């Protein structure tokens, strides 16, 4: 079999690779059982990943709370100034109209 490579598809029993339709192609990335092994880092790897994801989400919640705490006054305070000006003008117009 010099010069020929083994196909990377696995044939189902009694079928050709395409069998007349493109959705009948059976593809696998494994060329042997050694390639199909799943890498495992045991229980400690799972715990470490869980701690990392937990820390990430805690930081995400924390930064969102800080953004709300610091950005809200940046919009509320100038908004109250603007409303004070609007209400002052309404009072002045009402006082001028009442004379």
Fold blueprint:
Blueprint: H1 42-98
How would you characterize the overall build of this protein?
The chain is mostly helical and 99 residues long. It folds into two domains: 1-37, no CATH class; 41-98. The chain is 58% helix and 0% strand. It is built from one helix and no strands. The chain has one helix at 42-98. It is elongated and about 105 Å long.
Mean pLDDT: 80
Number of helices: 1
Structural class computed from helices and strand pairing: mainly alpha
Ends apart, CA distance between termini: 108 Å
Helix content: 55-70%
The number of distinct structural domains comes to 2
- pLDDT < 50 stretches: none
Shape: elongated
Spatial extent as radius of gyration: 35 Å
Strand tally is 0
The amount of beta strand, in percent, is under 5%
What are the secondary-structure elements, in order, as H or E? H
The biggest beta sheet, please?
none
Using brief descriptors, characterize the structure shown.
99 residues, mainly alpha, 2 domains, 1 helix, elongated
Summarize this, please?
This protein has 99 residues and is mainly α. Helix content is 58%, strand content 0%. It folds into 2 domains: 1-37, no CATH class; 41-98.
């Amino acid at each position: 079999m010099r010069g020929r490579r083994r196909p990377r598809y696995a044939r189902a029993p009694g079928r050709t690779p395409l069998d007349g339709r493109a959705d009948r192609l059976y593809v696998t990335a494994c060329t042997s059982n050694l390639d199909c092994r799943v890498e495992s880092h045991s229980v400690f790897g799972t715990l470490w990943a869980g701690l990392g994801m937990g820390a990430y989400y805690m930081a995400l919640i924390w930064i969102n709370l800080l953004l709300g705490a610091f950005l809200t006054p940046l919009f509320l305070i100038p908004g109250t100034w603007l409303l004070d000006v609007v209400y002052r003008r309404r009072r002045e117009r009402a006082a001028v109209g009442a004379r």
